[in-house]
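seq as requested:
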Amino acid sequence: MNASTGTTETHNSRRAKTTGLAVAAAGIVVFNISPLLNWVNPDEGADPRTGYETDSLVPFIAYLGLGLLVALIYAGKRARRGQHRGLTLVSMAVGIAATIQCLAFALNPMGGLERGDNLAADLGVWVGVIGAAIWAVGSYLLAKEIEGDDEDDTLRTR
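struct tokens:
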């Protein structure tokens, strides 16, 4: 009870744990390493191709992940409870999409089909799958935490 105003003040200071953000960040970093690695290996003795050489979607998703990571860190600092649910769910959706894209690539490698190359998935695809899956799980862990814009955290008076 505030003696000067005669009001009762309640302030809930629970904040989201940063574990999910750290896991998502690790997954995004791993995913950003994957385009530098070989994604396909032609059977006919041709040089293997990196993620950058096979499909422009690969580095785009990696850079999108970096942008989301910066936004998640910023939201974590600005939000009262340490996260913004909408942004976290977008990050999770992109992490899931990146995982599915890498799995599809592993099952049917691209980046040389127009030349008739017989391609096999290489290490970079699997690093991408692991990084994207970690990214999605980390975003999920953060999304299940208390939301930053929750009305229960406001200063209430009676």
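The longest helix spans residues 85-107.
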